[in-house]
Amino acid sequence: GAGVSQSPRYKVAKRGQDVALRCDPISGHVSLFWYQQALGQGPEFLTYFQNEAQLDKSGLPSDRFFAERPEGSVSTLKIQRTQQEDSAVYLCASSLAYQQGGNSPLHFGNGTRLTVT
Amino acid sequence: AQKVTQAQTEISVVEKEDVTLDCVYETRDTTYYLFWYKQPPSGELVFLIRRNSFDEQNEISGRYSWNFQKSTSSFNFTITASQVVDSAVYFCALSQTGANNLFFGTGTRLTVIP
To answer: Which of A42, A59, A100 has the CB atom closest to B33's CB atom?
Structure first.
C-alpha cells in the first residue's frame, strides 16, 4: 500500500554507536512528524517538518538527536552516541494538513524499534 | 500545560461485551482537538476520531461511539459488541488548535477474549 514506511523495522546498537532511522511519508504529504514511544508509554513528540523546513524541534531530548528532510519527502532521524535510555520505538507520521488542526489526520508508520545494549 | 490521563492500564472483556475506555484531559486552552488512536500489535497508530472542542455532540461510527463532556473534561470511547480484532492498545490524545504536536495518554490495552 501507499502508507508511511519506516526502516529498519528493528535496530540494535551498542552504546556509543550512531544510528539513522528512515521515514518515507505518504506521497504529497506536507507535514512530517517524529515521535518516540517508550515501552508501555504513549508516543511523545520529537520534531515536526513542513516540507523541508524543520519548524519545531522542541521535543528532541538532547543535541545527540538530529532530524532532516532535505527534499521535503524522505526524512532521517539520526541519534549520535546512543545511550540505553534511547531505547524506544521511533514513530514517523505524515499528514496532508499543515497543522494538527487541519482536516487531515496523522498517518503513522509501523515504527523502528531501537534497542541500545 | 496539556495532560491526558487514561487511568485504565489494561482491560479484558469477553467477546460481544461492551467496553468503555476512559480519557480525562487537562488544558488551559479554550480551543483544542481530542483524538483516539488504535495501536494493534503491528505497531502503527490508526486514527479513529478527531473532535473539536466546540463540538460536544456525541458520535457513533458502527460499533464505536464517543462521549465528549467538557464539563468533566472527558472524552470516553465505547466499543459495542466487542470482537477479538478490537484487541489493541488505545490512545487518547490532545492537541492545541494550530499546534504541531499531539499529547498522548499512556494508553489502555484492551484484550477481547473469544
So the answer is: A100
